[in-house]
Amino acid sequence: MATLDELMQLPGAMAAFEFRGSGELLDHRIAYPDRINPATLDLVAHMCSANMSIATMQARGWEQVTAMKGFYPIQEFTLIGFDWSVVVSGLGRERHKQEGKFSLPPFLGVVMSNESADYEAAFAILEH
To answer: What three-state secondary structure class fits 30?
Structure first.
């Protein structure tokens, strides 16, 4: 599973963070405290949690209504903003679920500056 320090090595990485499904920020690293602070990162974690929940609801509903498969579970997503982007992964959680484990690891995320963000590299780190 990726670490916060590995995520901070990505081009344009401004912050890396772990959070619970409830949105609670558990741990973080911040590269530019003048541009992003722990309070902002806490809001980002809650926003990511909400987005994962909504996307999960939509994916499950779509599969049930259409009988099409492959939309659930939501494993990763990217939110692109005006200046920053956030890439979030729940792959570690999904692996634990598939193994029948009940104690799930946190979600992982990285905030990157759009000017130099490398989304493919972010997903590569989050997926190993």
So the answer is: strand
Strand order in the sheet with 76-80: 25-30, 13-19, 107-113, 84-89, 76-80
Q: Which residue has the higher pLDDT, 97 or 34?
A: 34
Helix, coil or strand: residue 107: strand
Question: By the 8 A CB rule, do 20 and 46 touch?
Answer: no
| Cβ pair 38, 45 in contact under 8 A | no
* Structural tokens at position 78: 């990217």
For the stretch 58-115, pLDDT in tens is 999 999 999 999 999 888 999 999 999 999 998 887 888 788 888 888 999 999 999 9
Which domains, and CATH codes, for the chain?
4-126 (3.30.450.30)
Q: How far apart (Å, rounded) are the C-alpha atoms in residues 86 and 49?
A: 12
Give the pLDDT confidence score for residue 39 in this predicted structure. 97
**Among 77, 40, 39, residue whose Cα is nearest residue 56:** 77
pLDDT for 59? 95
